[in-house]
Amino acid sequence: xxxxxxxxxxxxxxxxxxxxxxxxxxxxxxxxxxxxxxxxxxxxxxxxxxxxxxxxxxxxxxxxxxxxxxxxxxxxxxxxxxxxxxxxxxxxxxxxxxxxxxxxxxxxxxxxxxxxxxxxxxxxxxxxxxxxxxxxxxxxxxxxxxxxxxxxxxxxxxxxxxxxxxxxxxxxxxxxxxxxxxxxxxxxxxxxxxxxxxxxxxxxxxxxxxxxxxxxxxxxxxxxxxxxxxxxxxxxxxxxxxxxxxxxxxxxxxxxxxxxxxxxxxxxxxxxxxxxxxxxxxxxxxxxxxxxxxxxxxxxxxxxxxxxxxxxxxxxxxxxxxxxxxxxx
Length: 329
What we know:
CATH superfamily of the largest domain: PPM-type phosphatase domain
Number of strands: 14
Largest sheet: 5 strands, antiparallel
Order of helices and strands: EEHHEEEEEEHHEEHHEEHEE
CATH topology of the largest domain: Phosphatase 2c, domain 1
Mean pLDDT: 89
Shape: globular
Number of helices: 7
């Protein structure tokens, strides 16, 4: 798993065919590359496109499969792209199993293929499982039978991600002398209730009305952070970040524009989306410049910031603040 920022997480799993030093070297280079590409915060299919070109350069004769997925808990979906890898399995809050098997492209290193992203629902109470063929492939049965058996095991596997993982491995009959490498990655989107739910909150505002949107956004953010009982210093920094991000969007973006605040037990995330795909960059403003300081201010006061393109041609600009230990007061 790779933390992308803005409350989002990337999940990646892959498999290089064969054994020995050559296969291990290819896997090591692809593993390093995917972490670097993840920092670009690209859509899953664009990450696979970059990996495909790199795999061709490394060793065109070495076959590798990969699935790259991004989870945004606020969207309630898992967006993914697959290069010849086995389908992601998702158990929703009702216990129903979904198999994310479309779209998929050929393995990495084939070149010339345009990968595409798909999505599968992953709302509160859902569990997603990514795995390699060593978990489900057996010499005496069809591969699809192994995946179906894994689906049945997932339907009855509850508990923490580690518990679910252990149960799936045991159900597949994997032992210490198993003749193939096995990797399993489990992601849960918990359904939070009671006091715990107060630590995971969301609030959003559509930014309408031109320049009047800026003071309305500041008032909205102030009210939300006050209701979430943030300390005065963090409240003021949050409102300042909202002011700068909204002002940047109003000056350089296009409608529709939206402000979103999200808190967890560890951090506050502020995000502004608009319809323009031009990504902002931090630059040094000269003393006489009247603009150009907004992103620099956000980068200075926040723990982290970033931007990404969104489906449909827009962008999202976000920043995060780490919450004090023990939560807010």
